[in-house]
Amino acid sequence: MSIRLFDSKEGALRAFVPLEPNRVSVYVCGPTVQSSPHVGHLRSALVYDLLRRWLTHEGYDVTLVRNVTDIDDKVLDNAAAAGIEKWWALAYRMELEFSQAYAALGILPPTYEPRATASIPEMIALIERLIDRGHAYVAADDSGDVYFDTRRWPSYGSLTHQNPDDMDAAADADLRGKNDARDFALWKGHKVGEPDSANWTTPWGGGRPGWHIECSAMATKYLGSSFDIHGGGLDLRFPHHENELAQSEAAGDGFAQYWLHNGLVSIGGQKMSKSLGNSVFAADLLAASDAIVLRYLLGSAHYRSTLELHETAIAEAQAAFDRITGFLARVNRSAAADVVAGQVPEAFREAMNDDLNIPQGIAVIFDEVRSGNTMLDDGMIAKAVSIAERIVAMLDVLGLNPGAPEWNNTGTQPSAVALELLLEQLLLNRQEARDTRDFAAADKIRDNLAAAGITIEDTPTGAHWSLHGR
RNA sequence: GGUGGAUUGGCCGAGAGGCUAGGCAGCGGCCUGCAAAGCCGUCCACGCGGGUUCGAAUCCCGCAUCCACCUCCA
Fold this sequence. Notes:
With 470 residues, this protein is of the alpha/beta class. Helix content is 44%, strand content 15%.
């Protein structure tokens, strides 16, 4: 039983065989830190976090590199538009926002997170190799730009299965110093008015890197000239990934063996993006919901599908996830101990191995929840515990185990202790009222608590309370 | 014009020739003082038109609609 992944370049599912046994190298295109993270960025990072967790679970030693694009047209433009903030200050401020949002969602830090500005020498060396091999040229217009020569690279278009001649040739595009409209910038010559801090010296003049070259340079710098998996959002397939592939292969690198592309997040059937102005920002959504529920929601569609962020999505995800945690809480009460992780069921493994079919894996969790609840109803505690152990194992793989350290943010605060004591007393009062069949008084306590967002559940062993389903 | 992808029940969302996921919501029941939670049952499906087949949501052909990308984007 091996892992199968959908390789965008082949356009088919392929059995995953790493270059080195038991080791996997993954490069993921991270964000351009030009503005605050939105839900789409979170989903993308989450997809590769889940891939990494699954590969790790299956015994692979995973090296995950996710870059930070901290020098780019937009970074410079946005900093200039804002006024006094330096471009590097903006980039760093945004990078911190991204890191915070990732951490809030339980997305593990990558093995390494290189910044583009820290690999300029490698980019320059790569561009020199391309010039030497005749695949790149310095623009004839004295701009200092360097372009990749797409016409001299016969396989250009192979990633996205396009014939360059059929591409919409942006009729009004300014050729500048290009030989062909499809040639793309490896290097952008320094322009008057651009900050000196964004001006690096090269054999062909000062300037800054183009967008695509950084990923080729950093992927091979950290993962080698050939590595296993390259991932990123579907909207990066062209031009970004096509150009990465072209320049890396033209320079003689083997580059990525598998290309993965995650689906986008849509609102009302339309892609969420910075340029469309329909972004739902990570910070807003994290403020409006439990982070673990948001993680469940963003992981609940297959990674290649478009995920529609509809109005009631969070409430539905909360209800669904409460069903899982509700069962675990029942088991913990019955067993008077916290359940630990066991082995994942074979059906779950098969789903995950099949191109990371997490929706199918979640269905396995709910099947287990149902049978586990039945066991509890029938008083078969030991069986319920072993089911719960399997569920915790699956939740661990998905980063959704509410008992895992990254989610453990309650219980020790003074306010939580005070709440616990108050609730104990109120439940006692309610029980006394019920014992004397004073149901009006008992229900008043329950109604008051419900108004405060606290739910009471009566069980054969006494009443339990929960806040927001936890 | 080119390249990919999608259309599944009230909603979300898997599957991929016969076994008709899962969740949310709804309805009926069990349980409960009443609830809640849980369990059982239940309603509601595969965009349209053809074709192949004993059998098609699934394969083939055509059509429609939508989405993404074609050098700013996760």
